[in-house]
Amino acid sequence: MTRIPRRYLIHEITVEPYGGESSTGTLYGPPAPVRCLLDEQTRAVRTPGGEQVTSTSTAYADLDTEAPALSRVTLPGGRTTTVIQTKRRDGRGLGTPNHLEIQLE
Question: Per its UniProt entry, which superkingdom is the organism in (predicted)?
C-alpha cells in the first residue's frame, strides 16, 4: 500500500473520535494526535445525508486514522472544529498515495 510520504505530513491535529450522545451531552473518545497535510481552504461539500455545507479545512492523513463524522478536531492554531465526513482514497495496487480525506467544518 502506497501512503502519502511522511515529509508531506507537516501538520498535526488532535482528533477526539465521536462516541455518540448521552443524557449529559456528546461523548468523545480520548484525544489522539494525527500527522496530516492540512489545507485550510473554504469550499462547499455534501454531508453523508446529502445536505450542502461549508468546509473550512481538509486534512489528508493515513488510511488507518480514526475520525468518524461529528468527531471533534483541534487544529494547529488552536481552533476547534467538527468532522463533516471522511473519504477513503484507496487506489489499492495502482500506486497512488492512499489516504483519508477529512473534511472539517
Answer: Bacteria
